Amino acid sequence: MIDLYFAPTPNGWKAAIMLEETGLDYRLNLMRLAEGDQFAPEFLKISPNAKMPAIVDHAPASAWGENPVSVFESGAILLYLADKTGVFAPPPEDLRGRKELMEWLFWQVGNQGPMGGQLSHFRNYAPEDERAYGFKRYLGEYDRNLGVLENRLDGRDYLLGAYSIADMLAFTWAFIAKPLGASLEDFPRVAEWRRRIKERPAVQRAIDLHKSDQNRGRHRADNNRVLFNQSASSLRQKSAPGKE
């Protein structure tokens, strides 16, 4: 059994897609981010960055020992699950394949994901009078990353040739291009790649999880200081209840 700490966001979908694709038995724990579940002391022990997704594997491979294994950060989670199951990633002995996997994994978590997240903030959650510059800046970066995907998909159906965790990681932020104010019109290979992945039954099940609990602009920077404008002090205060 694997515990999945989840909210219905692009990053949450990544872990859910991998669990659905592999058929691993998991228990979903919905994180109420606008209410501060991510700052609970017991969750910070699993995810010290106070972010979901995170997992706890209660039946790890024997090499890990008998104790449960916790993993935070979406890229690390998918790589852990790929190694656990032996699917959706080149094996460690395939040095070239593994090298390419790591390149696209680090590209996604260091470029596409953060740029998409910032674009989402300025499109949907920033105060109205502070949106324009940030939206223009991050829309440009988001489109630049779509261009990277478009080039990579020339002559390939998927980023590594075969469907892998690299595709799962990158798909979720391409999936929501329209709500971010972006378009795939100039990126036909990305649009076709997105369509192929979206049609997978496991992907559909994952992105439908708690669909009614998506934020959809209800909680914004100007009305929810728990979800936005966090600082180091929010971690200290939440992890040490009762202390000023």
User: What is the succession of H and E elements?
Assistant: EHEHEEHHHHHHH
Number of domains: 2
Major pleated sheet: 4 strands, mixed
Amount of helix? 40-55%
For the largest sheet, list the strands in their spatial order.
2-1-3-4
Query: Could you say what the CATH architecture of the largest domain is?
Result: 3-Layer(aba) Sandwich
Category from helices, strands and their pairing: alpha+beta
**Rg estimate, integer Å:** 18 Å
Sheet-strand content, in percent, reads 5-15%
State the distance separating the first and last CA atoms: 38 Å
InterPro entries: Glutathione-S-Trfase_C-like, Glutathione-S-Trfase_C_sf, Glutathione_S-Trfase, Glutathione_S-Trfase_N, GST_C, Thioredoxin-like_sf
Family: Belongs to the GST superfamily.
Protein name: GST-like protein
Pfam families: GST_C, GST_N
Write the topology of this structure.
Elements: E1 2-6, H1 10-22, E2 26-30, H2 41-44, E3 54-57, E4 69-72, H3 74-85, H4 95-125, H5 132-152, H6 165-175, H7 188-198, H8 201-207, H9 232-239
Helix pairs in contact: 1-3, 1-6, 1-8, 4-5, 4-6, 6-7
